[in-house]
Design brief:
By secondary structure, this protein is mainly α. It has 9 helices and 2 strands.
Length: about 190
């Protein structure tokens, strides 16, 4: 879980997203989602038969979730900046312009597919896009200490295939509550002095 805590700190102190997005409330929910989805590990999804699934990274995002963040008017510009800074697109990254979905049903934007293919190499990007996915939810973040409300928000936003309330209550939420108090939000100036 140290790797998750370090990745959360790196993502929340990177200046590309507004500091206001990285409240304790947002960090705790994001930590809980990462713990719920991947056990706090930066890994590809493993299905019951041992094969690799479609999701990856701490937050276990799939290409279609990445595409949602890249296409949503609320997050598209910031998501494009995050992707460009990561350098996944090479020289094309500076020219990448996100926008509304324009692909046939069942098809995913090629940039989202490319980002997902390289996701494990970019934990800061994973958490930035995951934070933007939470931001795209039109409802405000739930109260920081309300595990039930955070569970409901996670279900609404992440739309997990096989959600486990027992895992949330007995592991993810408890660990997130323990991790986040050690991760106070910092300004970029504070982060550069450490």
């Amino acid at each position: 879980m140290l790797a998750l805590a370090e990745a959360l700190r790196a993502a929340s102190t990177d200046t590309i997203l507004p500091a206001s997005l990285w409240s304790h409330q947002a960090l705790r929910l994001l930590a809980a989602i990462c713990l719920q989805e991947s056990g706090g590990q930066n890994v590809p999804q493993r299905l019951a038969d041992g094969t690799e699934g479609l999701a990856a990274g701490f937050p276990q995002m799939q290409a279609n979730g990445i595409e949602d963040v890249l296409a949503n008017p609320a997050s598209a510009a910031l998501a494009a900046q995050c992707v460009a800074r990561a350098g996944i697109l090479g020289d094309a990254g500076a020219k990448f312009s996100p926008g509304p979905r324009g692909y046939p049903l069942g098809a995913t934007h090629p940039v989202a597919v490319l980002v997902r293919a390289n996701f494990l190499n970019f934990p800061t990007l994973q958490l930035q896009l995951a934070r933007l996915m939470l931001w795209d939810n039109p409802h405000p973040l739930p109260p920081m200490d309300d595990g039930d409300a955070n569970w409901a928000y996670y279900l609404e936003t992440w739309r997990p295939g096989k959600p486990s309330r027992a895992r949330w209550d007995g592991f993810a939420w408890l660990q997130a509550c323990a991790i986040v108090p050690t991760l106070p939000p910092q300004t970029p100036a504070q982060a550069s002095t450490e």
